Amino acid sequence: MTEISRYEWSSSEEARKNCAAISQNPASCENYIRTYFELTSDTFILCGTHALQPTCAEFKRENTKPLRLISAVGMSPIDADSTSPFIRSNENIITVNVAELSSSEPLLIRRNVVKMWKGIENDVILRTPRGLSSFEQANFLSMHKVKKEVLFFFSESPMETEGCGLHKVARVGRVCEDDPGGRLSYNKEWSSYEKARIECSIEENDTDTFYFNQFAGVAESPNSFYGAFRSQLAGIGASAICKYSKKSISKSFASGFRDSDSPDSCAKANELEELSRLRLKPLIKHKISANPIYIFHGKDRFVHVLAQEDSRDLSNRSFDILYVGTNLGNILKIVISNSEPGSNVTGRHAVTLKVLPSNSKITDMSLYTKNGVEELIVVTEQSVIKVPSATCHLATNCAECLSHGDPHCAWADGAECIDIRTDRRKSASQDSGTCDVVSFDNHKPVLIPPLKNKDSLKVPVCLCETEKVKKPCATEVIQKEIVLSGSSEPWKYITVFAVGVLTGSIFNYCYFYFSRNKPSRLTDDSSNEHRQLLLNLGGKTAPSSRSSSSMTRPITTTSSTRVPIDAFTTSSIADEMFSSTLSSANRFNTVSMHSSIRTYC
Fold it and tell me: Where exactly are the transmembrane stretches of this chain (predicted)?
């Protein structure tokens, strides 16, 4: 990846001084960009936190500095840690933010950016009611435009009537894009705001319902939404994916209004009585429920999801592909067949990509295609990384190629696993029944380093040339992880064998030593004392022999797979990945860390 342009906009000195008097955290006095709006083909607006004073700035594409600034309440969150989704609607931006530093109540706001920039004041702002708790300690995930509706997904504290031990419940909210506002004194409030509970749960006869109630992420496809959920129960490492129809969501919201006859219209409250009821009780009775199409058990917990709808295999069968990011830096590729009946749809885990260190906060994922080659872009708070969207090239035999069930992969010419999107051959087959039976771990994470651009240097590029101390790039750390993972298995058994040999040698030495010096006859007491002495010596000696064995037999390994790699990352992510690698290395006394590519910044 290549940097196209860079725009610089920091908090002003005055804003920093005011912020320092309020906040004890210096990081909160920086400027974090949160909103983007394109005014013309060569002019755009950025809005940021600006040291706890939300501000927007105008930029020309050829200028790196802002042309002018304007205060923008509600256009950006005050706190940099807040998640604030937004969406453009004609000349408006619809977003959800806390409007004042002293308040904790988020407001759903629609503001005309063009009029705001021309100096036309607050008569064009639309918001949710103040003081009525439209959102209860809410965490917002994403916002989407569906025809004339704007849907937004979030989680919040449950109402008393739906608590049942749940800490959080998942919600979807909805407003009309062209909402004119309410009547009379409600003219600055939404007349179409509703919210509904979203459920992703397992229900069986004669058992309690198991809820995946922690909302992790949402992915949009042309006809559906995919939700990633986690269980709130401690000790149960379970995450799930549920699928919801856009049509059914819109139908559920329309059922609460009187003028919901037209399926293409966005229903809203026209009567004052109906609007008063909606302001007090925006939560509709109907729940939007679904059973999981995929459930994952393990240490990984879902944090982000990306959907790719209608991928085709060699037989032209349709599949949906989900890329699910986890808290351990893995990305799971889930394949969902569209040929199965609706109630029987289940996902299949194709492959796990290991691309990031643990606890990397994934903020976004997207697919990028250039010259027919599709790549997965992963964005974290510290880096932007691209990796292949399929791992066909890493398969070494027919069974490994096809047993993953990846519709992108096929076995060709009896010798190679190919990506059918870029390489179509007559000999290609996706029938796993023709493969020889070979044992392999189908779901072991595939360590897959970032891709290298063809037009870049022949070595990975790391964006930390200004560092005085040379630090390893993320590419080198990833290669070390490959070596570490490859070294852990075979040498474990060799170490156990060496410990056994040394322990036996010590016992034999002790036995012959005391045999030469003992009397010809031993009483029972002295015999017991002798036996106890041997046991004590053995107990004290065994651990030291284990340590000695490990120190004198360094673990070495070679990696059969070396993929050309490139990293678009900052020095901070390299530090974190290097620390993660070192913590893994501490499990061994001596580890040989040979890297096929060694790049320093």
Answer: 493-514
Does the residue 546 lie in any domain? yes
Q: Measured between alpha carbons, how far is 505 from 162 in angstroms, rounded to an integer?
A: 68
Count CB-CB contacts under 10 A for residue 416. 18
Q: Encoding tokens for residue 583?
A: 């913590």
- How many Cβ atoms are within 10 Å of 363's Cβ, its own excluded? 14
Taking only the tens place, the pLDDT of each residue in 307-316 is: 998 899 998 9
pLDDT over 70 percentage in the chain = 71
Pair 22, 52: CB distance under 8 Å: yes
Q: Which residue's entry shows tokens 């930390």? A: 464
Query: Of 103, 127, 151, which residue sits at a domain end?
Result: 127
Which of 479, 494, 448, 470 is closest to 590 using CA atoms? Answer: 494
Intra-chain end-to-end CA distance of the chain, in Å: 17
Inside any domain, residue 18? yes
Q: What tokens does 377 get? A: 């872009």
- For residues 111 and 93, give the distance between their C-alpha atoms in angstroms, rounded to a whole number: 6
Show which of 127, 149, 181 is a domain's final residue: 127
In the chain, the number of structural domains is 2
Examine residue 350 and state whether it is found in any structural domain, yes or no: no
The tokens describing 229, both together, are 């959920």
Burial 43-74 (b: 16+ CB within 10 A, else e): ebbbbbbbbbbbbbbbbeeeeeebeeeeebbb
| Span 262-275, pLDDT tens digits | 656 788 888 888 88
CA angle 221, 366, 62 (to 5 degrees): 120
- Nearest-Å Rg of the Cα atoms of the chain is 30
Cβ-based burial of 39 (10 A; exposed 0-12, middle 13-18, buried ≥19) = middle
Inside any domain, residue 296: no
> Is there a contact between 137 and 130 (Cβ–Cβ < 8 Å)?
no
Angle of helix 490-517 versus helix 474-488 axis, rounded to 10: 50
For residue 594, the enclosing domain spans 456-601
Evaluate whether 450 touches 474 at the Cβ level (below 8 Å): yes
Main-chain dihedrals φ then ψ at residue 274, nearest 5 degrees: -65, -35
Is the pTM of the predicted complex or chain greater than 0.90?
Answer: no
